[in-house]
Design brief:
Length: 365
C-alpha cells in the first residue's frame, strides 16, 4: 500500500511541475512576445492530460486493490480532487497561450506590467500548495490558503481591467483584443483560486478538517431565458461580481446558443469577464428542485418551466434581449445598458433579501 501511495504522490508532484512550467513558459511568451513559446505551451498540454488520466487510473486501482480506510481514504480522495485542479490550471495556461496568439495576430501587445505581479503571487501560491501536499504539511497549506484570501490578486486584476478598458476607450486597443487580454488576467486569478482549493484538499488529507465549504448552506439561483446566450449570462456575470459565498448563480436556456460575442464585449467593458462562462439547455438540469429560486427572464422561459412544488420559489423578470436588436451601434449599446441596469438593480435587491443584510458586508466576510 505504501509503495502505491508513493507512486501516486510522485505522479501528482510530476504533474504539478509540468503545470507550473506551463504557466512560467506562457508568461515568458507574453512578456517577450514570443509566439513559439506559446505554441510550446499548447503542444505540451497533452502531457498534462495524459498524467491526469494516469493518476485517475492509479487512484481507481488503489481503491479496488486496498479498500482503504481513514487516512489512506482521505489521501486518495484528495488526490482525485487535486488531479482535477491541476488539470484545470494546465487548461488555463493553454487558454492564455491561445489568447496571446490571437492578440498577437491583431498586432497588439498582450503584455501588461501588472501581469507579472499577479503571476508572482499566483504561481508561488500553487508551488506552496504542491509543497504542502508533497510534505503533508497542513500548516503550510493553511497559511497559503489564508494568504490567497487577502485579495491582493483581485485588486491587481481590477487595476488591469481598468487600464485595458481605458486603452480601448482611447482607441489604443482594438475591440477584438480586449476580451482575450481580460481572459488572460482572469486565468491567472483562477490559478490562485485553484491553489487555494488544493490547500483545502491537503488540509482534509492531513487532518480530516473540511474547509471546502466555509458556509453550511449555499443557496442556488437559476436564471432562465429563451437562449442562454445573452440575458442569463449577463445576470450570472453581475451576480458573480457580488462575490457572495452563500449564493451560487447559474443560467440555462429553453434552447441553447453559443455565448454571444457582443455580450462578452459589453460585459468586458463593464469590467466583468464572462468569457469563461458556457451556455446550457434547461433540459441539462437534472433536478430543478435543487434550486431555491428560479428567475424567468422572458415569457418563453416562463412557459417552458414545468409545474413544481413550493420549492423552488418562482420569480418573473421580463427583460429584453439586446443581442436580438437590429439598429445602429448606439441603439444596440443603449439596449445592452438598459438590460444591464435592470438586472444589476434587481439582482442586488434579491441578494440583499436573501442574505438579510448588506451585500457589501457579505462580500467583506
Amino acid at each position: 500500500m505504501q509503495q502505491d501511495i508513493d507512486l501516486i504522490r510522485s505522479h501528482v508532484i510530476e504533474m504539478g511541475k509540468l503545470v507550473e512550467k506551463a504557466l512560467e513558459t506562457c508568461l515568458g511568451a507574453i512578456e517577450h512576445n514570443d509566439r513559439q513559446l506559446a505554441y510550446v505551451v499548447i503542444l505540451r498540454d497533452r502531457h498534462i492530460d495524459e498524467l491526469e488520466e494516469t493518476l485517475e487510473s492509479l487512484c481507481q486501482r488503489f481503491l479496488i486493490k486496498h479498500l482503504p480506510v481513514a487516512s489512506q481514504m482521505r489521501f486518495v480522495y484528495s488526490v482525485i480532487k487535486i488531479n482535477t485542479e491541476l488539470e484545470r490550471v494546465g487548461d488555463y495556461a493553454k487558454a492564455m497561450a491561445r489568447r496571446f496568439l490571437s492578440v498577437s495576430d491583431l498586432g497588439a501587445h498582450a503584455f501588461h506590467p501588472k501581469l507579472i505581479e499577479i503571476a508572482n503571487l499566483a504561481i508561488p501560491f500553487l508551488r506552496n500548495a504542491l509543497q504542502a501536499f508533497a510534505e503533508g504539511d497542513a500548516e503550510l497549506a493553511k497559511a497559503t490558503r489564508e494568504k490567497e484570501k487577502e485579495r491582493a490578486i483581485d485588486n491587481l486584476r481590477y487595476e488591469i481591467h481598468r487600464d485595458l478598458i481605458q486603452l480601448h476607450i482611447n482607441g489604443e486597443l482594438p475591440s477584438e483584443a480586449l476580451v482575450p487580454l481580460v481572459t488572460i488576467v482572469s486565468c491567472l486569478e483562477r490559478v490562485a483560486n485553484q491553489a487555494s482549493n488544493i490547500c483545502e484538499e491537503v488540509l482534509y488529507m492531513c487532518t480530516g478538517e473540511d474547509l471546502r465549504h466555509d458556509y453550511p448552506h449555499v443557496l442556488r439561483v437559476l436564471f432562465v431565458a429563451e437562449h442562454d446566450a445573452c440575458r442569463g449570462q449577463i445576470a450570472v456575470g453581475i451576480s458573480n461580481a457580488l462575490e457572495s459565498h452563500r449564493i451560487l448563480f447559474s443560467s440555462a436556456g429553453v434552447a441553447s446558443q453559443p455565448l454571444d460575442p457582443k455580450t462578452v464585449q459589453f460585459m468586458t467593458e463593464k469590467g466583468i469577464d464572462i468569457s469563461g462562462q458556457t451556455s446550457k439547455y434547461l433540459s441539462q438540469i437534472l433536478d430543478l428542485k435543487d434550486y431555491a429560486i428560479i428567475v424567468s427572464l422572458c415569457e418563453e422561459a416562463e412557459r417552458a418551466l414545468p409545474s413544481l412544488p413550493s420549492r423552488p420559489v418562482r420569480i418573473s423578470w421580463k427583460v429584453p434581449d439586446p443581442s436580438k436588436l437590429e439598429g445602429t451601434e448606439a441603439e444596440v449599446q443603449a439596449a445592452y445598458q438598459k438590460t444591464f441596469q435592470f438586472l444589476e438593480t434587481h439582482i442586488r435587491e434579491l441578494s440583499q433579501a436573501i442574505l438579510g443584510n448588506d451585500v457589501e458586508k457579505e462580500k467583506e466576510n
